[in-house]
Task: structure prediction
Amino acid sequence: MLSRAFGLMLRKKQIAFIELPFESKSLAGIHMCFMLFSLDIYWLDSKMKVNGIRKNLKPFWFANAPKPAKYVLEAPAGALKLKIGDRIASPNH
Result:
């Protein structure tokens, strides 16, 4: 749970993949407190399908998930070119 709370906060530019305990809209919200760079946020459902996107989220802003999500993918702004409906492979497989 702590890794979810911290995500990429105070880290160098990289991609973070966060698994939530269950699919939820409220747990999937993002805060950008203490971030050093802008992020693109991708919310994915339990089938690893992108169901929400927030591009170029600036430091010290917040974003709520548009739909329930099981996974959150945080990437430096412009690093990935995913769109709604895209499916990604699990980083664990």
Notes: The chain is about 5% helix and 40% strand. The first strand starts at residue 16 and ends at 24. The CA atoms of residues 48 and 89 lie 7 Å apart. Helices lie at 2-6.
